[in-house]
Amino acid sequence: MGLLDILLGRSKPAPPDLDQLFALPSAAVTLQAAAGFTPTGQGAVCFATVEGAAFEQTHREVQALLDADADRTGAPVELTQDAYGYSWLVSHRAPDQLPDLVNDLHAVNSAMEVNGFGPQLLCSLAGFHDDRGRHLALVYLYKRGTFYPFCPLPGRAQRRDNALELQMKSLLADDLRIEQDLGRWFPVWGAPGL
Sheet containing 86-92: which strands, arranged edge to edge? Predict the structure, then answer.
């Protein structure tokens, strides 16, 4: 950081810390014990859409890596695109395999980062639900190294349960590095894995 940056109040962004993803299983225990939320077994990595042979090669590498997992049933990762033009690599696991799902998310993020696609990475999420039909995603912001809860309300309208999100923020403060700037708690409407 230079003198001009200091004078203008600019700060250098923190480097991504993918190891923060490994805190999710601990957070899941807290979620289940205190709020009744259990993992859905689905998670996803979101990134700005990338075209070209280099990305296709990276996608094949990720699939080969995750195909090697003997406990996996079905496709290792599924590539989808949302209505907003972002791409998602989605992993499906059994609900009791959250540590394996976290390994999948970490592997996808790491492979993209190593192959030069780090700037396109936006977020990763793991899905949870409770017996009342409520959904929760714990969203990891790649460029910030922090998490935030996203709780969409059921139905077709794009509305979220802000009170539940704030409750989850307080509940998970000891388990995850929570994003303190609520303006960065972006809605991930229609995200795979919810």
Answer: 77-81, 86-92, 38-48, 121-129, 135-141, 146-150
